[in-house]
Automatic annotation (TrEMBL):
Matching CDD domains: LuxR_C_like, REC_NarL-like
Pfam families in the cross-refs: GerE (PF00196), Response_reg (PF00072)
Top-level taxon in the UniProt lineage: Bacteria
Keywords: DNA-binding, Phosphoprotein
Name the UniProt record assigns to this protein: Ligand-binding protein SH3
Residue intervals of the Response regulatory domain: 7-124
List of residues that carry 4-aspartylphosphate: 59
Domain HTH luxR-type residue range list: 149-214
Gene3D superfamilies (UniProt xref): 3.40.50.2300
Gene Ontology terms describing biological process: phosphorelay signal transduction system; regulation of DNA-templated transcription
Length: 218
């Protein structure tokens, strides 16, 4: 049975990159670009005269209305749309902030078109696409962005679960320590222990593990 055509909106202020990417996207079977915008404000305005998208490809740094503001608006006003961030950004807190605004996936701007196509298919079929970012933070010994098999969740203590929930917010490590009623050094110990136990190499790795294993819902 053929799947319904997925309508795509692109929100990115880099005109040449957006135009080239739109051409590539329109070659993917089952996907069609129906709206392009330079920023979030233009995207919202164009929704008055364009079909509402199923998937929104969103940049973070844009003038007038940036990716954070746009993602927050989409979460409130287009709750069924899935946001895929296309970025070169590699800031843990920025990625976590976007996850909390309802973003369902991330793809690097220098990814191969096949990886983008796979990401779109996964987003369409599963509703979430975190494999590329998860792989890049889960296995430090490979440069491959192939999806890794879901790890068998290890036994976690109540404090470790609490820490994972708090680390998935925008709180700093110092603020997490205050929330847990422990010292910053103890929080560092939780972090380093979970890095080893979960085989991740960054804060985002911890968050993606928590999301994939149902510890937090975003």
């Amino acid at each position: 049975m053929n799947k319904a055509l997925q309508k795509i909106a692109m929100v990115d202020d880099h005109n040449m990159l957006r135009a080239g990417l739109a051409t590539v996207l329109n070659t993917f079977e089952g996907f069609e670009v129906v709206l392009e915008a330079n920023n979030g404000r233009e995207f919202i305005d164009k929704l008055q005269t364009h079909p509402h998208p199923d998937i929104i490809l969103l940049d973070i740094h844009m003038p007038v209305m940036n990716g954070y503001e746009t993602a927050e608006w989409i979460k409130k006003n287009l709750p069924t749309a899935k946001i895929l961030v296309i970025t070169m950004l590699d800031s843990d807190l920025a990625i976590i902030k976007m996850l909390n605004f309802g973003v369902k996936g991330f793809v690097f701007k220098d990814s191969h078109p096949d990886q983008l196509r796979k990401a779109l298919i996964q987003l369409r079929d599963k509703g979430i696409c975190l494999d590329e970012f998860y792989a890049s933070r889960y296995n430090p010994e490979t440069d491959s962005y192939e999806a890794l098999p879901p790890p068998t969740p290890p036994q976690l203590s109540e404090k470790e679960v609490e820490f994972l929930k708090l680390v998935s917010t925008e709180l700093t490590y110092r603020e997490i320590a205050e929330e847990m009623g422990v010292s910053p050094r103890t929080v560092d110990s939780y972090r380093d222990t979970l890095f080893k136990k979960l085989h991740v190499i960054s804060r985002v790795g911890l968050v993606l593990f928590a999301v994939r294993n149902g510890i937090v819902m975003m």
